[in-house]
């Protein structure tokens, strides 16, 4: 693998030089007021990226998986029932975590490639007159299949049923890259990590809690220590953590939020959509299909590309790494060997994307697929030329 080439995996993503430098800082006393000057602006920056006026933001030295555990353990009790759809590897892993925590999971099995079945959620919630369901789990962007789901529709299902369940959203591969509206969608717990849209190294689990979720922490009985948000809130009040924080990463997060907000969130979302549309144009030119079943569920952060029947898609990923020093994502779970993934989020431009598409073409051609070299690149070029990127002045 070459450090000179950008990565095209759906996280960790490419790190801008300014963020790399922000993380590389001298040791400071993490129990001094100086640390508060890093911590509190970072939390406020995340709150603004979540598009929330009041979310309580907690930042743990962990990954998105730690964020999931934070949401569950701070708000639920053993034996509680949660509602979840399984439509990809990451929704599957969240379900597995719930079951390991002694929760009862009502699972809606959903074909991989489809979005969350909001209508089925609505039916189940309307029938739950006793309100045994305490939380609804929603994976906003299923990274394994390149599928984005309609979280607003899940919120409508809850509201129309008059159901009090909490709404938990996995935004690990969507937040800071695609439109995410914590307040407007009535999200109670939003989970993400540092290594995707925030363009940082792995190491931070970033979680937003609503007032309703914070109230649930007072009655929740699941055990928690490291991920206890009550302990964390007490630490924050004193410019500190209940244990040692990842100071450099927090400094990087502070700078990342400044970069995103300076660009303007609408421009960030538009940039990701534009780059993704170029990738999708390339896929069509190759004569291939996405795992995502229809345009309304296409992800703007990752495309899972189906290869012909009988062809091992993982060979493309291996060929790219071994021969050209470029990283793509493999298929996971039910789509392992059936798709390869191109991540197009974070610090990426159309020119960088074109290099990834060219490499994918070379790999497919090397492996005997009926691909015309340059076809996908040309299709993406045509799209990018017709829809030029915003300049810094226009984005301001």
Report low-confidence residues grouped into runs of 5 or more: none
Largest sheet: 7 strands, mixed
Give the DSSP E fraction (strand runs of 2 or more residues). Answer: 5-15%
Report the mean per-residue pLDDT as an integer.
Answer: 96
Q: What structural category do the secondary elements indicate?
A: alpha/beta
- Taken in chain order, the helices and strands follow as HHEHEHEHEEEHEEEHHHHEEHEEHHH
Straight-line distance between termini: 37 Å
What's the domain count? 2
Overall morphology: globular
Radius of gyration: 21 Å
CATH H level of the largest domain: which superfamily?
Type I PLP-dependent aspartate aminotransferase-like (Major domain)
Features:
396 residues, Aspartate Aminotransferase, domain 1, Aspartate Aminotransferase, domain 2, alpha/beta, single chain, 2 domains, 7-stranded mixed β-sheet, 14 helices
Describe this structure in words.
By secondary structure, the chain is an alpha/beta fold. It has two domains: 246 residues, Type I PLP-dependent aspartate aminotransferase-like (Major domain) (Aspartate Aminotransferase, domain 2), CATH 3.40.640.10; 132 residues, Aspartate Aminotransferase, domain 1, CATH 3.90.1150. Strand 12 and strand 13 form a beta hairpin. Helix 10 runs parallel beside helix 12 and helix 12 packs antiparallel against helix 13. The longest helix has 22 residues. The radius of gyration is 21 Å and the shape is globular. The mean pLDDT is 96.
């Amino acid at each position: 693998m070459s450090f000179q080439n950008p990565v095209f995996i759906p996280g960790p993503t490419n790190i801008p030089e300014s963020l790399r430098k922000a993380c590389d800082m001298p040791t400071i006393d993490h129990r001094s007021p100086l640390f508060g000057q890093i911590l509190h602006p970072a939390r406020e920056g995340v709150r603004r990226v979540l598009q929330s006026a009041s979310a309580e933001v907690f930042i743990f030295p962990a990954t998105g998986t730690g964020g999931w555990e934070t949401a569950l353990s701070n708000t639920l009790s053993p034996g509680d029932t949660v509602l979840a759809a399984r439509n990809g590897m990451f929704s599957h892993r969240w379900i597995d975590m719930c079951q390991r925590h002694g929760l009862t999971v009502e699972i809606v099995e959903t074909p991989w490639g489809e979005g969350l079945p909001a209508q089925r959620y609505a039916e189940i919630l309307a029938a739950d007159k006793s309100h045994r369901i305490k939380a609804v789990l929603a994976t906003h962007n299923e990274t394994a299949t390149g599928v984005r789901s309609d979280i607003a529709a899940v919120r409508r299902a809850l509201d129309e049923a008059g159901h009090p369940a909490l709404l938990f959203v996995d935004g690990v591969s969507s937040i800071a890259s695609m439109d995410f509206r914590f307040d407007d969608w009535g999200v109670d717990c939003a989970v993400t990590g540092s290594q995707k849209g925030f363009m940082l190294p792995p190491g931070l689990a970033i979680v937003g809690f609503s007032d309703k979720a914070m109230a649930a922490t007072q009655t929740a009985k699941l055990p928690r220590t490291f991920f206890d948000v009550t302990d964390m809130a007490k630490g924050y009040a004193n410019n500190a953590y209940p244990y040692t924080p990842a100071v450099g990463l927090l400094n990087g997060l502070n700078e990342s939020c400044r970069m995103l907000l300076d660009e303007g969130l609408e421009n960030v979302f538009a940039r990701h959509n534009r780059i993704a549309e170029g990738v999708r144009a390339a896929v069509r030119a190759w004569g291939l299909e996405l795992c995502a079943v229809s345009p309304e569920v296409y992800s703007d952060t990752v495309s899972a590309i189906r290869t012909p029947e009988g062809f091992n898609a993982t060979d493309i990923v291996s060929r790219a790494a071994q021969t050209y020093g470029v990283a793509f994502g493999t298929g996971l779970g039910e789509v392992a060997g059936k798709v390869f993934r191109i991540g197009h989020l974070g610090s990426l431009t159309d020119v960088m994307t074109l290099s990834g598409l060219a490499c994918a073409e070379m790999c497919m051609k090397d492996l005997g697929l009926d691909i015309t070299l340059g076809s996908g690149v040309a299709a993406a070029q045509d799209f990018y030329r017709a829809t030029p990127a915003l300049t810094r002045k226009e984005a301001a």
